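Following up on my earlier thread - several people asked me to post the actual chain instead of describing it. Fair enough. Here it is, all 496 residues.
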Amino acid sequence: MTHITRRQALVSGGALGAFLPMAAACAPAKTANASPDESKFTDGVRLAELIAKGELTALEAVNAAIDRAESVEPKINAIASKMYDSARDMAASTPQGRLGGVPSFIKDLNDWKGAPTFYGSQAFKGYIAQSDHEISMAWRKAGIIPIGKSTSPELGLTATTETLVTGASRNPWNTDHSTGGSSGGAGALVAARVVPFAHATDGGGSIRIPASCNGVFGLKPSRGRTYLRASEPPVPISVSLAETLTVRDSVAVFRVNQTGNYDDIGAISGPSEKRLKIGLLTMPPSGKPADAEVVAATEKAAALCNSLGHEVVPFAFPASFSTAEFVENFVLYWSAGAAEFVQQASKFTGKPPGPDIVEPLTLHLAGHFQKNAAAFGDAVAYLKGFEAVYDSWFSNMDILLTPTLPHLPFKIGEIGPTVDPEVHFSKVIDYATFTPLMNVSGAASMSVPLGWSTSGLPIGIMFSGKRGDDGKLYGLAYELEQAAPWIDNIPPVHAS
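Reply from S.P.:
Thanks for posting it. Predicted structure:
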């Protein structure tokens, strides 16, 4: 009999094998009131502990992750650029820090010094970052080792990850379907068990939408609690965190990303004992009904919360809230970013703005801003005032429970880069109808993988609080993870 050492077991089939149990490739039934079995998977927190104890090296961890990436990348196309050599160089020095030696991915919208950044755009092919984004600096300090850049749509402007520069990223649950966006590559790589967590950003739902589409956990932090960039826009709607397999990995990355010492996050290591009053809403702000399976999954999540002792009550938007007014102002603000990006792309390429350097949707949004630029100041004022409006909804509840998305993931091509931009954006507005509310208000919000369609596609359930409620959400997330563990739900495309 061949003798297998503990290190060989860790690298080949245990801690580093594939972050998954030996289970069927489709979502199995969940066992109520059971915690995830750590013997069956290794998340980033555990992996860092193993490296710190010397039970395996950072280089072994990185090489195993690279092997996993290579095994699934041809099927999911979620890597914008590979950083294998630099990752091995970093690993050889055994990085110290909270997550020292853990392999991961950085989203293609963020600069990592010495690595390419496409920003999801054909315009920036050939660009090499000369410095780190603030989040990249924090990740270096924590010892996290990126083995590549994960794919993103151009400037993160849409809810799918299909671009002219990297092609379509594909959902590990069904490769005919989208990964969501804009952190679509990150969501797919985590779902496929390539890495335990991957960097993600959220400016309109871009952490929560891919978490929903790919069946992983994704929390959008409150405004001001994690690094963004040195120069903030008039209304800081975008934040950074990660797509993760486990709640505790999300907490660990939050602590890496945070701008200060928040004891409420550091102290959270399991379910909260506080019982919450949870408002339930299944009708999308758009006014167009959600898919029946999405509604059923959301109501099932509400029933789970009731069974855990929380009080679930119906919620409806007050009559004074106008979804059309919100969308009008948000879209104009969103379009301003597209207009600025078009100018940056033109400057970098030396070419005039046009479809040969940026995608049709980006040009469409830039054109929308140019036509309506005179109203930009009023839009900023509206968005700045929205936090108070949003907070008023919580006068009689602690948490708002909704679907993350009203529909199942799009099929590849439905909102791809060559689709008529007006059609494309109208579909996105309908699809990403719940998530932008929390970006504008600066609120904490999370997508939890609690639902599954009859066809086997994930359905994310969104729980949202007010700004600063990150700890409250994490306490609930730990409880849901124990009551309905999702770690055993493995997509057909996974690293094995």
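The chain has a mean pLDDT of 92. That should answer part of your original question.
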